[in-house]
Amino acid sequence: MAQGIDLGYAATLPSKEAVAYFRAKGAHISWNWFETDADVHARSFTAAKVARLDVLTTLQAEVQRAVDEGISQKAFIRTLTPRLQKLGWWGKQIVVDSAGNAEEVQLGSPRRLALIYNVNTRVAYNAGRYTQMMNNTDTHPFWQYVAVMDSRTRPAHSALNGQVFRYDDPFWNTHYPPNGWNCRCRVRPLSQTRLDAMGLSVSSGQDHLSTRNVEAGVDKQTGEVREMPVTTYSDGTRTMTPDVGWSYNPG
Q1: Rounded distance, CA 240 to CA 229, Å?
Q2: Which NCBIfam families match (predicted)?
Q3: ∠ at Cα 163 (192, 118), nearest 5°?
Q4: How far apart are CA 174 and CA 191, in angstroms?
Q5: What is the pLDDT of residues 13-36, one digit of tens each?
Q6: In what order do the strands lie in the sheet with 225-234?
Q7: pLDDT tens string 79-111
Q8: 3-state SS, residue 230
Q9: What is the largest CA-CA distance in the chain?
């Protein structure tokens, strides 16, 4: 029997919307993760330091299977390890990028595959949830930010736990989860009746969002400093800035 996607908060098979979201993605080759804009990340499957299409499509196909069937992280790594080793994409190697520059890089490893699994399944799950919730805004127009309240959750993410915004609030354009590497946050839809029963108030991102460009990384070959926009939410009580490269809504 297929095991549930390892999202920490979801132990069931993914929704049809999550499956459709990932299936619609094309393949995009990039050397550094910060070379790819957020909108391209939302539309394409990409993995840093993958300069070969056969490797990228192998990774993409297995992530798709994980999303389709709810395959666990452990099974994902176990299946891909020998296949990537056979393709020669494993361990530390000297690799020549698309510009002809040589660089020692970490290719496949259990840790790297765990990151690829976590990022892609969580994004697909949340994008699928976004589609579901947008289809029910007439009855559930309020969305509540939910963080996993344990020792691994970043304080800024914990600070947003329980905050409620309308579905069309600008907050969700830049702070719909995941909001960073290994972020486990999610969103819960609420009706007016449920909102009142829980005694919750509705926040607004209007006038509390600010965007600036920050350094995302440096191209080792050219020395070029790459910047990406990040958007901070600050209401005077709590402040939350997604990781660089994550200020976007995957849905």
Answers
A1: 14
A2: phageSPP1_gp7 (TIGR01641)
A3: 115
A4: 23
A5: 456 766 666 566 655 556 555 565
A6: 209-218, 225-234, 239-240
A7: 999 999 999 889 988 877 666 777 788 888 999
A8: strand
A9: 62
